[in-house]
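Friendly challenge for the regulars: who can give me the structure tokens for this chain first? No prize, just bragging rights.
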Amino acid sequence: MVVMPNASRTKPEKPDPSFPLTAYPNGQWCKRIRGQVQFLGVWAESDAALANHLRLAADLHAGRDSASVSSGDLTVKEMGNEFLAAGLHGSPCAARMWHCQYD
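First reply, four minutes later:
Bragging rights claimed.
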């Protein structure tokens, strides 16, 4: 979150009338989607906030969590699954240990 000095807390005007985001008092652009306020970027970077909105809007309107949108990074869950899969296929001993522990 960007902390703005009190003197500059006046909300900016929208860059153009069709701009879909609203200036929120905390210094960020936001949009209410399915009853929740989504913060999409700081006032100074309205183009980046709009790009973020366009990237996430379809998933948020469909009810999918924005965190579930893949960023291309490996998650801990995916890494753990890859590790376990490599261990199971690496040796018969690992497979026996897996079945002894989880069967």
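Residues 41 and 49 are 4 Å apart (CA to CA). Helices lie at 46-61, 76-90, 92-102. Your move, everyone else.
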